[in-house]
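Researcher: Next entry: Lipocalin-like protein (Pedobacter psychroterrae).
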Amino acid sequence: MKKALLILFIAFSAGFISCTKSPIPVDEVKEPEPVIKAIEFDVTKLYGKWKATESLIDAGDGKGVWKPIAGDSLYIKFNSDGTIEGNGFRDDPISYKVLPNSRLEVTIKGNISYTFGISISGQTLNLRPNCIEGCGTRFVKVE
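Model: Predicted structure:
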């Protein structure tokens, strides 16, 4: 970790030392491209019952792996009216809504909301909460 920080410090220092100011004529200044573009998400692909099959475990080093979920089956059912059923969340979910940029907001009892990154590929759903070390749950569609 210390070596990585030292390398970053040296790289940034070298960048600052080698920079020179050169004015850009006003007529050559371009508007920057947006870094994140809105991604459309087809909410109808989310409707139905999903079984949790894997959990992403990462200690924060980026080398996380998906591991099978053992024990009782965990399910989530996303209804077309925006309600959720099942035991796939640790708290009792009430409702959900799909947000821009492939995010899902889930509201639980007590009117507390959590936001997840969401992706669906075929019959596989990935939910990734906001966590520092990298985490997530993978589901397979059953209905």
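Model: Note for the record: Residues 26 and 85 are 57 Å apart (CA to CA).
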